[in-house]
Amino acid sequence: MDSSTPSRGRVLTVWEPENKEFWEREGAAIARRNLWISAPALMLAFIVWQMWSVITLNLPGLGFKFSDDPKVNEDLLFWLAAAPSLSGATLRIFYSFMIPLVGGRRWTAISTASLLIPVIGMGIAVQDKTTSYSTFMILALLCGFGSGNFSSSMANIGYFYPKAHKGAALGFNAGFGNLGVSVVQFVAPRVVKIALFGALLGAALPFTVKKGLTSTTTEIWQQNAPFIWVPFIVLFTVLAWFFMNDIASAKASLRAQLVIFREPHNWLMCILYLGTFGSFIGYSAGFPLFLKNVFPNEPIANYVWAGAFTGAIIRPVGGWLSDKVGGAIVTFWNFLVMALAVLGVLFFLPKTTGGLSLPFGPHEGSFPACFAVFVVLFLTTGIGNGSTFRMIPTIFSTLKTREAAHGTDEQRAAAQREGVLLGSAVVGFSAAIGAYGGFLVPRSVAMSNRITHGPEAALWAFAAYYLICAAITWYFYSRKNAPMPC
Question: Is residue 469 within 8 Å of 271, Cβ to Cβ?
Answer without folding.
Answer: yes
